[in-house]
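Q: Hi! Curious about what Proline--tRNA ligase looks like structurally. Here's the sequence.
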Amino acid sequence: MARVLTPRAEDFPRWYQDLIAKAKLADNGPVRGTMVIRPAGYAIWERMQAEMDARIKAAGAENAYFPLFIPESYLKREAQHVEGFSPELAVVTHGGGKPLAEPIVVRPTSETVIGEFMAKWIDSYRDLPLLLNQWANVVRWELRPRIFLRTSEFLWQEGHTAHATREDARAYARRILHEAYEDLMVNVIGIPVVVGLKTARERFAGATATYTCEGMMGDGKALQLGTSHELGQNFAKAFDISYSSKEGGREHAWTTSWGTSTRMLGGLIMAHGDDNGLRVPPRLAPIQAYVMIVKDGDGVGEAAAKLRDGLRDAGVRVALDDRTDTPFGRRAVDAELRGYPVRVEVGPRDLAVGNATVVRRTDGSKTPTPVADVVTAVLAALETDQQVLHDQALANRESRTVEVATLAEAIEAAATGWARVPWSAVGVAGEAEANGQGVTVRCLLRADGSVPDSEDEPDLIAILARAY
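A: Let's find out. The predicted structure is below.
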């Protein structure tokens, strides 16, 4: 395979940018910090959307849509929230050629505008829980943009819910965390995430608790792939989201919010990609099997079309490449870059003896296979390689995670991977010291790996790392 990417070991950030460009996943937009998601990249995002949307709906939430423009006064109602987002806000001051009576914020997230309408729609305990989700774009003015990871505008889903009790709100925030986010990331995207509690320093602005899914990338750094927040009654009091209880009193609701974004595409690239390009887990891949005509003639086109149809009938997402006017080597390189899980190469020489060649993206293996057995071989490869990619990512994380006893050791370990250290050995002061050296506490865990309710619980483990 011709070298078209900077090797990961040589320059990981350059490899990442090379891959995005050469695989035609995305491009930089005309305004600094924005991105254009190309069809190949958007097809993967659509698969992520579909899988996530199904999980969110299974948890009882319904999709809605709220405005892109938010009155600046809405954000100012929740002090921590506006303070947390102020440096990232894009503000509109003119419209229709005239100064606006009140500046308008381009949504960085929608707690405030959705809170306004929750207050309007909720009257009685019978209206709870109110479970909403929206698919939208948001704007956060990034100083150091990087495609998919940090852009001034990105795509995401954001869920917002209101509940009668704190217990119900907490249970729902965690349900989304595990049943939607963790399940998708582990079982579809193939990234073994660590699920834990954010520290107060890392908590979402205005939240009382933030839960996170953290994945290790190929260079040992962490990437926050999704978060779920308990908002307590902070937004309910700011926007008067209240209800008549069964007892006849007036109570404020307890709210949550949660989101995942196109950052998951960056995670996919950095967790699974290799020096030949992207590797897309089969359950996620828009194209699972790519049938390629090596050279036309001798019934090759007809045989390739039959294989495509047979794979499609077996439930495989399949495409046929019959562009024989383009050199096969170039097409094969492009297929590697795009990360199609399986290629089926059909040429006159193999076909003459009744074979096609099945190529697996995970390891590059090429297996001559009787045409009659190709569908079975492809289905087996797809099932196996979904697990292979997960297991390779898990092995990378385990090999680069070390148990340490002190903050100094944790900061040193974060140069090449993750550190697990007692939270009591770090604490608030130690976290600030680590931040000063570019290391963050990614999350807190109980000793048994479960998610704590509070950072004040005894015997918690902190995960420290450098992060994107």
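A: A fun detail: The radius of gyration is 25 Å.
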